[in-house]
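Course assignment 3, question 2. Fill in each field.
Student: A.L.
Task: Predict the tertiary structure for the chain below.
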Amino acid sequence: MLEKLISWIQKKEREGVSKDQVEAAADLLVWVMYADGHIASAETETIDAELRRLGWTSPFAMDLYLQGATARARRALEDPSFAETYLSRASERLGTNEMRQRVLDACADLAAADGDSSAAESRLLDKLQEAFKL
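Answer field:
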């Protein structure tokens, strides 16, 4: 069983999606989910599915990592200075414009997952696009 897991992780790394990229995507997806103050089950399911598609390779269990991402997202919503640094760092960790676009698209899908893309979610998506220079 352990060999299968290691093989799967190595395959994802060969495909070019790093642990840092997937964790940055998780951070941004959670931030978008919390932007409107409403958490829908469709949103959490969307995050889970996207992280699995990207290939979760973190040494942390996904749930544990998402708890930390939640705390960071809440801080970003409350502290504009932290938000700016957080977004800049996430953009760096994503590494490529292709990955940034993929995450921006996933964030847009997430914002619409509950059937209602709020003004707060739209503003955050605009900030992501600006920071990513897409």
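Instructor remarks: DSSP finds seven helices and no strands in the chain. The first helix runs from residue 2 to 14.
Grade: pending
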